[in-house]
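R.M. (postdoc): so does anyone remember the format we settled on? I'll just put the structure tokens first.
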């Protein structure tokens, strides 16, 4: 089942569209926000082309890319992606700009794990972060994700994290008031 949109406590989520290309590029090219991301071509046209290719993967049910917006203002404040693997899901490309709400990070983590574990029914989540990304490491500690290894990428050495259904249950219960209520 594909989740096209969701309404959280302070932020909402919807699948990206080609018209989001300029916004996504602005996030990725921001020196602070894009510091731990793979390099991105600054061409809006190339970003639009990439999004058109992504929409094919979305239609195949192997990847979902969401825009995050602030409920009160409707302003877009970030992105997050979910990737379907054979027997687990991965997520990444979480970027939140200065327009985010104080709970946007946790709400985003709840949303992406709710889809992976409860909607898609996977038993495990996997994700990585650069070992120098202190803010992300602090967040992943709050959600009780476990470091299970290390990987080398084009962006340096990264922690490899996992969560299983028990981890998800503890995370979900700990932050239950921020859980997305409506998935569409």
């Amino acid at each position: 089942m594909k989740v096209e949109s969701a309404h959280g406590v302070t932020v909402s989520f919807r699948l990206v569209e080609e018209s989001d290309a300029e916004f996504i590029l602005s996030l990725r090219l921001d020196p602070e926000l894009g510091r731990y991301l793979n390099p991105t071509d600054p061409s809006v046209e190339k970003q639009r082309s990439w999004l058109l290719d992504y929409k094919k993967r979305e239609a195949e049910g192997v990847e979902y890319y969401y825009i995050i917006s602030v409920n009160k203002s409707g302003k877009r404040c970030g992105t997050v992606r979910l990737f379907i693997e054979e027997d687990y899901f991965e997520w990444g490309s979480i970027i939140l700009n200065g327009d985010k709400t104080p709970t946007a990070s946790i709400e985003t983590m709840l949303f992406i794990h709710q889809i992976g574990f409860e909607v898609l029914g996977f038993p495990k989540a996997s994700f990585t972060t650069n070992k120098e990304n202190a803010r992300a490491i602090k967040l992943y500690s709050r959600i009780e994700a476990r470091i299970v290894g290390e990987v080398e990428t084009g962006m340096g050495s990264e922690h490899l994290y996992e969560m299983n259904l028990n981890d998800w249950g503890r995370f979900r219960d700990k932050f239950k008031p921020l859980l997305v209520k409506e998935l569409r």
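R.M.: ...and that's the designed sequence above, right after the tokens. Also worth knowing: The mean pLDDT is 96. Helices lie at 21-29, 44-60, 104-119, 134-142, 165-174.
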